[in-house]
Q: What sequence folds into this?
C-alpha cells in the first residue's frame, strides 16, 4: 500500500532536490518503494512594463510530496527513510514525535486535482490589488491621479479604479500594470 508524505526541503531548491533525490532512488533501485516525487506548482501570468510573461509558481514553497510504499505496520521502510533523510537539502518529514504523518485522502485529492486542473487551465493573471486599496495611475491619460480600487478582474487583467475628476467620483477600467499602490 502506498501513502503520500510531505518532505520539508530548502525553499527555492525544490526542483533540484527532487531531481537529486530521484537520482539517488534510481541508484539504489528503490523505484518500487518510492514511485512519485512532486513539487506542486501552478502557471501564473504577469504583465510588467507592458510585457506579458508566464511562469510556474510553487504552490507550497519548501515542500515536496512523496508517494511511498509502506509496510504492514503502516511505516516507511528504513532504507527509504534513511535515503531521503540523508539527501542534501532535505530537512525531514512532516509529522509529530519524529514519525512521518501520511497525508489524508482529501488532501491528496485536492493536491492532485489542483495540479491536473492547473495543467489544462489557461494561466491566471497575478494581480496584487484588492478592492479598497489606494492606488496611483502611473500611465495613460489619467497619469498621476490617485484613486481607490473598486473591482479586480483577473480574467481580463483589469482593475476598476474610482478617481475624483472635477470633484466627482469617476470609474476607470485600467490594465493592472497601469496602476501602483500608494
A:
Amino acid at each position: 500500500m502506498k501513502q503520500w508524505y510531505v518532505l520539508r526541503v530548502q525553499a527555492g531548491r525544490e526542483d533540484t532536490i527532487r531531481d537529486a533525490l530521484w537520482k539517488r532512488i534510481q541508484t539504489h533501485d528503490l523505484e518500487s518503494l518510492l514511485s512519485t516525487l512532486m513539487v506542486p506548482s501552478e502557471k501564473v501570468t504577469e504583465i510588467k512594463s507592458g510585457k506579458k510573461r508566464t511562469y510556474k509558481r510553487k504552490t507550497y514553497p519548501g515542500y515536496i510530496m512523496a508517494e511511498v510504499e509502506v509496510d504492514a505496520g503502516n511505516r516507511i521502510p528504513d532504507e527509504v527513510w534513511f535515503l531521503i533523510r540523508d539527501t542534501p537539502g532535505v530537512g525531514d518529514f512532516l509529522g509529530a514525535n519524529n514519525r512521518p504523518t501520511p497525508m489524508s485522502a482529501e488532501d491528496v485529492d485536492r493536491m492532485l486535482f489542483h495540479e491536473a486542473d492547473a495543467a489544462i487551465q489557461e494561466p491566471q493573471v497575478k494581480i496584487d490589488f484588492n478592492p479598497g486599496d489606494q492606488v496611483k495611475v502611473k500611465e495613460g491619460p489619467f497619469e498621476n491621479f490617485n484613486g481607490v480600487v473598486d473591482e479586480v478582474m483577473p480574467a481580463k487583467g483589469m482593475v476598476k479604479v474610482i478617481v475624483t475628476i472635477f470633484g466627482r467620483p469617476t470609474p476607470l477600467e485600467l490594465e493592472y500594470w497601469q496602476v501602483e499602490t500608494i
About this structure: The chain has two domains: 2-125, 134-181. The CA atoms of residues 6 and 86 lie 16 Å apart.
